[in-house]
Amino acid sequence: MEARIDPPAPSSAGPDAVRVERVSKSFPGVQALKQVDFTLREGEVHGLVGENGAGKSTLIKVLTGAYSADKGNVEIFGHAVDQHGPRAQQRAGVAAIYQELTVVADLSAASNVFLGRPMRRGPMVNRRAMEQRFRELGARLGVDIQPRARAGDLSVANQQMLEIMRALQADHRILIMDEPTASLGPNERERLYETVGRLRDERTSVIYISHDLDEVLRLCDRISVLRDGEMVATAAVGAWDKEKLVNTMLGTELRAPPARHRASEGDELLRVEGVTVPGKLQDISFVLRAGEIFGIAGLVGAGRTELLRALAGTEPGASGTLTIDGRTQPLPRTVGRALALGIALAPEDRKGQGLVLSQSGFVNVTMTDMRGLAPGAIVRSGRRKSAAEVIATSLAFDPRRLGAPTGTLSGGNQQKLVVGKWLHRRPRVLLMDEPTRGIDVGAKGEMFAVMRRLADEGMAIIMVSSELEEVVELADRVLVLAKGRQAAILEYGELSLERVLAMTFGVEGEAAA
Amino acid sequence: ADDPVENAEKILEFDARNITPSKAYRIAYLTECGQNPYCSARRAGLEAAAQKYGFTYKRFAANFNPAAQIKQVQNAITEGFDGYLFAPTAAAPACSMWKRHLEPLDEPTVSLDLPMCEDADYSEGLAATVTMQRQAYYNAHVDHALASCTEPCKVAAVGGFVGSDLFGFWEKAIQQGAEKFPNAEIVVDQPANFDPRVALEKIQNALLAHPEITVILSSWDDMSRGVEQAIEAAGKTPGTDVRIYSIGATKDGIAKVKAGTYNETTVLLPWEESYYAAVALIAALEGEPINGYINEADLPAVADGPGTIIITPENVDTMTEPKY
Amino acid sequence: MTESPPPPGAGSRTERGATLLKRYGAAAFRTYGIIVAFVILVIVVSIGNPAFLSQGNIFNMLSQWAPAGIMAVGMTYVILTGGFDLSIASGYSLCAVVAAGVGILVDPAYAFLAAIAAGFVVGLLNAVLVVGVNINPFITTVGTGFILGGVTYVVTKNAAFVVPDMAFGDLGAGRWHGFPFSGMMLIGFLLVGGLVLAKTVYGEAIYAVGGNREASRLSGIRVRTVIGSTYVLSGVCMGVAGTLTASQLNSAQANLDPVIIFDVLTIVVVGGTSLAGGFGSMWRTVVGLGIIATISNGFVLLDIDVFYQDIIKGSIIVGALALDVLARRVATRSGA
Amino acid sequence: MTESPPPPGAGSRTERGATLLKRYGAAAFRTYGIIVAFVILVIVVSIGNPAFLSQGNIFNMLSQWAPAGIMAVGMTYVILTGGFDLSIASGYSLCAVVAAGVGILVDPAYAFLAAIAAGFVVGLLNAVLVVGVNINPFITTVGTGFILGGVTYVVTKNAAFVVPDMAFGDLGAGRWHGFPFSGMMLIGFLLVGGLVLAKTVYGEAIYAVGGNREASRLSGIRVRTVIGSTYVLSGVCMGVAGTLTASQLNSAQANLDPVIIFDVLTIVVVGGTSLAGGFGSMWRTVVGLGIIATISNGFVLLDIDVFYQDIIKGSIIVGALALDVLARRVATRSGA
Ligand SMILES: Nc1ncnc2c1ncn2[C@@H]1O[C@H](COP(=O)(O)OP(=O)(O)OP(=O)(O)O)[C@@H](O)[C@H]1O
Ligand SMILES: Nc1ncnc2c1ncn2[C@@H]1O[C@H](COP(=O)(O)OP(=O)(O)OP(=O)(O)O)[C@@H](O)[C@H]1O
Ligand SMILES: [Mg+2]
Ligand SMILES: [Mg+2]
């Protein structure tokens, strides 16, 4: 894959597109940015990396005017921007893709792309022109979304594409991308990289935030590292390598990832047969053993989320059977039924489905098992506290932040809690949809270690991830889905990135042929 | 037709003839009423007249809402009736409904409930007006109560809905009464929406702020039940420690006067009001319009009974059993 | 919350089993279920009394429901942004009183303008509190409702303002070949209000803000201006509605129609517009208005006993929405 | 929407500049701003008439506001899940009528139970429609409100039910050393309601469901049961409130106090509980109740002219919330 992309030509230094001087920003109880200096040169792609909660998203929100800084200056093309909300910055040519999806669910896909700047004919919205332009953009990015589809009905990946299309839709001089690839598959990623390359050629200045360090190293001209709200280093890409980036981000050496090992061949825990969701999935069957991590690979829209939702009792149209403890039964029809069977889902949409954002981490982490913490119906806060702290620690989440409403946490830290929710209740089968989305490299290691440990303790885990490397690295066996059909199940010995890739695309090739 | 007593006699005489009308009339009953015991009694009176005179009627109930009433007047006219019984929700808008919509029709209209068009009672052009609730009625009630203050005394008042015409009459009567009877000091004057629970609250508070209150004016018997409970809750005896002057002469109100809990209740005759209004309309349809004002106080329920609308323990036995 | 409005034509192309017709038919049923409820109601009432569909009756209904319907147009905008305007009953009385007052003191010709100006000020007050001071719109407008009602009492001293000049009544009660002016204004408001919502940049912003306020802000929409403007619009609608009523009654007074707020909210919500904001449309308000007006008119035409009216009204409201919801569910199951 | 609930004690240990005191002080101000408004109001009224703080007046207020306050407890639960219960005015009348009816026909001793059973049924009806059929709670409860009101008319044939046995009044009007039983029940409901909300699994589920219904569902919370239960609870509160009022008046009738719904909603919302669900608490309802009761009591104690009452009431409601909002803003700025 690496070989397919040309190394970026170092861009000639122009006047600065963005200059941030001594910017500080704090929230009640947290200093998110401390005297940060940052410069974005015209026409460069500038990577921004750091641990979860380092302050990356906060920095770019200050840049776009979504937040106003407590102290410090922001200049865009040499002009100080007075902090009057996102409008002023947009006028100055800044577009942003925020980490948290900002789609308006009830509007059409096209309206979402042109949100706030609809194409018009006088005071009227020119829908035809908008849909036309929408299709062009979609073709450029290689996505096939109906312009009139309701945005809320789209998959997370397609919603992410809408955000990208929104940022690209007008020709901005500064483009800020906060983890744009987090829920994209390999195809979409490649298209995005191409697009970024083209934008650089057109001398658009780009800030690129990602936890995928390979991606950052390939794509960026310069890379800056934030740690605990402080800007600790900025250097040209040539000065960095992955290890150096990791060490600078974490301030320490990264612990070696857990050695990959195969689960001891456990007993059959769950047999899934003939799962079908009309229009989405056809006849999926597999066997899950205790103690294994079962990966599901596939392209975006292949139906991975649907499969998990069907098993978790939350896909109304699904049919098929489960065999568990020797009893064969139809798929659970409700979440409660699925939980009674010991099947739980950690969903991919953390804001919409994962967390109660107004409640603290304590509550969120333990809400899956409140009975367990509350004999006699009274919640024991002491028990809850210690239980939550154990979970937090195991996921590299600072236990001192458990009291904060989860809506105020950084994206990656929220993701840790979405997974952490199930560590207390301990289902027999845990379905994890994109569990590492937005998690930093250090925490990813912790997350993998936790998953491995849970499996070793006898839990079966089904993991969906758009990062195929991750699936291949962690899973004992992999089910490859292509267009809703079961392309293959790769056993331990057969697993390799190349094979999985070939299967996902190969079937696609077949279908096209 | 300028003398209400004569008008009353005329209508009684007509009714006594027990005629059979020349046809089965269809009448529109455009009422301000909604759903309460008063309204039910009014309906029963109309029903009795319909039985007797063989007419049918259609009820358009505005629920005390003038904006709704205009719709109903239009609907009724579009549908078309032989005659109209019109009980205004409020005097001013009713005037426009009358002048703009009803008067131009060639059919007789009898008004009841409230005077309209800034007239004291009868409005020119109507076949008759049958009502009791005029400014004078409220003055009589308030004056009787305040006159009981032979020594300086403190008075609290609870009324109906702010903004309604009746509340306007009520407030004016209190204001004029206070001037006439300097012994009476109005210390609390609150709206209570004809609602016993609200009246309970207001009077409880009033008795706490002014423990010396000895007279309470209430504009409705049902509401007076709340007044009574408030007095009891303050550890006083209603009717003696604190006197209650109420309006309605309902069954319940009359019973309370007999029991000595209320010191007075002023007669309202919803049953008679609609009965005689309907009779007056039939009379007009049969070519014998009254063209004047009929006061229910001149009708037998009062005239042949207590002779006054003020019902006190002294004359309560002369009052016939109320119809509501 | 539980609302999942289906996008007409959002069906996926990959689906093979279902024919296009079946799919779109189901989508239409899902979307327009409330219309089915309305049509059933109309059929029942007009079988009961064929006069229901007579021209005279329809003209009457148009003129009668003009004030509530016009305020429902404003309320639709407010609710689509996720707001609430509970001050309309008092605001409407106040505007009616202003219209009548100006009609008495100055000239009926200025009454309309004066009432609209009064409504504008009322709306501005709400807008300042809701988006300026940033207080919850529900409680803000409950509060301003009390204030406006109180002001109206003080101004009128609890007496009605009667306009002697009968020409004042022409706006509200006048007709052109039998077609009431007020009905024309209602249709005009619904049409223009619907077009603006569906077709203009401003309408697009209303949906965006109601659907996701933060996303709209980040996209550079002037969220406060958009939200504030809906309260001003609602205020202007109060002005128009107040004038029409004052003119129909040739007079005005405090507390004109305190329960009109329920009518207006019911009209908007029964059509299916979501109180959470972001979902709904003007045709839904039209259907809601149709349902409520038909119920009210039907009671009289069918001469329903007053004792049973409330039970029937409540059952129709609940039944219409249940049908709407069930239509969606059935259609989703069979169509997808 | 614009509500951002502050986490008391969510401060990070890393912050060095601000002292603990300053930080928590600011947080307290931010959280408890509405209490400041309430205290100011109490001070003003008690300066105007010192009898306000007398034991007798406080006991009176407790007993007067027991029905509305008890229904506000149920409404707090409903609103915290993001729902609405607009059927309470009719439901309350119905329960009062049931209590009085049973008091007349059977025995006052059974009246209480019968009314609670009636309230339970009312709540169950709402619950079935809201979570069973899945209709928007606002419009559902408007509809059931009509139905229940209509049923009450039909049952009473529009006459008041007067209970001859004066012992019937003991529950509502009785006192123990001057302390009204009804006030005790109010305090009991507020306390137990608050504790359940703050301390139990059920309470947590209410907040979770109101905060994010989908996340709660996927976490295995029985979302429908939780939501439905709040309507049943609200129904039971109607039963208790209805009995108290019937007992206080020794009678009951249809349409007992149709505007009590506004009181109850205002009590819950003025304290700061969010209509969007998920944020609020019982102490906020207590403060809201305090504010509304003080305003109403103050009008009589200070003998405020009727004409100005509504203006004052509206201004206090808006003012209290504006103070609350500004307190949050100032405290956020200075404290962080
Ligand atoms: N609205 C907010 N209120 C309170 N605290 C906040 C808010 N937004 C961010 N924070 C805090 O500021 C810090 C920096 O968060 P930020 O989102 O910038 O991190 P990040 O570097 O983008 O992390 P991630 O990689 O997980 O997205 C975190 O501690 C976070 O909890
Ligand atoms: N929460 C949800 N509720 C309903 N439908 C959903 C939900 N999430 C995803 N979908 C549906 O899933 C479809 C997209 O496919 P899906 O998300 O299953 O693919 P995937 O293989 O998991 O890919 P992705 O990487 O996008 O998750 C969309 O048609 C969308 O309607
Ligand atoms: Mg971030
Ligand atoms: Mg997915």
Give the number of DSSP strands of chain B: 12
H/E series of chain B: HEHEHEHEEHEHEHEHEHEHEHE
As a percent range, the share of helical residues of chain B equals: 40-55%
Could you estimate the helical fraction of the residues of chain A in percent?
Answer: 25-40%
Strand-pairing-aware structural class of chain A:
alpha/beta
Strand proportion of chain B: 15-25%
How is this structure best summarized?
Chain A is α/β, with parallel strands linked by helices. Chain A has helices spanning 56-64, 86-91, 109-113, 127-141, 156-169, 186-201, 213-219, 242-250, 304-311, 335-341, 350-354, 361-366, 370-373, 381-394, 411-425, 441-456, 468-474, 497-512; strands at residues 16-27, 30-41, 45-50, 71-76, 79-80, 94-97, 120-121, 124-125, 174-178, 205-209, 222-227, 230-236, 268-277, 281-289, 293-298, 319-324, 327-330, 343-346, 429-433, 460-464, 477-482, 485-490. Chain C is an all-alpha fold and 336 residues long.
Please describe what this structure looks like:
The complex is a heterotetramer, with 1 copy of chain A (513 residues), 1 copy of chain B (324 residues) and 2 copies of chain C (336 residues). By secondary structure, chain A is an alpha/beta fold. Helices cover 35% and strands 25% of the residues of chain A. Chain A has a 6-stranded mixed beta sheet, sandwiched between helices. The longest helix of chain A has 16 residues. In chain B, helix 7 crosses helix 8. With 324 residues, chain B is an alpha/beta fold. The model of chain B has no long low-confidence stretch (mean pLDDT 90). Chain C is built from 14 helices and 4 strands. In chain C, strands 1-4 form a two-stranded antiparallel ribbon. A two-stranded antiparallel ribbon of chain C has the order 2-3. In chain C, a hairpin with a 2-residue loop joins strand 2 and strand 3. The two termini of chain C are 21 Å apart. In chain C, 65% of the residues are buried. The N terminus of chain C is likely disordered. Chains in contact: A-C, A-D, B-C, B-D, C-D. The interface between C and D is large, with 49 and 50 residues. The structure holds adenosine-5'-triphosphate (2 copies) and magnesium ion (2 copies). The site of one magnesium ion has 6 residues of chain A, from helix 1.
Write the SSE topology.
The complex is a heterotetramer, with one copy of chain A (513 residues), one copy of chain B (324 residues) and two copies of chain C (336 residues).
Chain A (H helix, E strand, L loop, with lengths): L15 E12 L2 E12 L3 E6 L5 H9 L6 E6 L2 E2 L5 H6 L2 E4 L11 H5 L6 E2 L2 E2 L1 H15 L14 H14 L4 E5 L7 H16 L3 E5 L3 H7 L2 E6 L2 E7 L5 H9 L17 E10 L3 E9 L3 E6 L5 H8 L7 E6 L2 E4 L4 H7 L1 E4 L3 H5 L6 H6 L3 H4 L7 H14 L16 H15 L3 E5 L7 H16 L3 E5 L3 H7 L2 E6 L2 E6 L6 H16 L1
Parallel strand pairs in A: 3-10, 3-11, 6-9, 9-10, 15-20, 15-21, 18-19, 19-20
Antiparallel strand pairs in A: 1-2, 1-4, 4-5, 7-8, 11-12, 13-14, 13-16, 16-17, 21-22
Helix pairs in contact in A: 4-5, 14-15
Chain B lengths: L3 H13 L9 E6 L5 H17 L2 E6 L4 H14 L3 E4 L4 H12 L6 E4 L15 E4 L3 H13 L5 E7 L5 H16 L3 E8 L4 H14 L3 E6 L2 H13 L9 E6 L2 H9 L4 E4 L2 H16 L7 E3 L4 H4 L6 E2 L13
Parallel strand pairs in B: 1-2, 1-3, 3-4, 4-5, 5-11, 6-7, 6-8, 8-9, 9-10
Antiparallel strand pairs in B: 10-12
Helix pairs in contact in B: 1-10, 2-10, 3-4, 5-6, 7-8
Chain C lengths: L19 H29 L6 H10 L1 H15 L7 H18 L2 H26 L3 H20 L4 E2 L7 H4 L1 E2 L2 E2 H19 L1 H11 L1 H6 L4 H27 L1 E2 L7 H11 L11 H20 L4 H30 L1
Antiparallel strand pairs in C: 1-4, 2-3
Helix pairs in contact in C: 1-13, 1-14, 2-8, 3-8, 3-11, 3-12, 3-13, 4-5, 4-6, 4-11, 5-6, 5-11, 8-9, 12-13, 13-14
The structure holds adenosine-5'-triphosphate (2 copies) and magnesium ion (2 copies).
The site of one adenosine-5'-triphosphate has 15 residues of chain A, from α5 and α9.
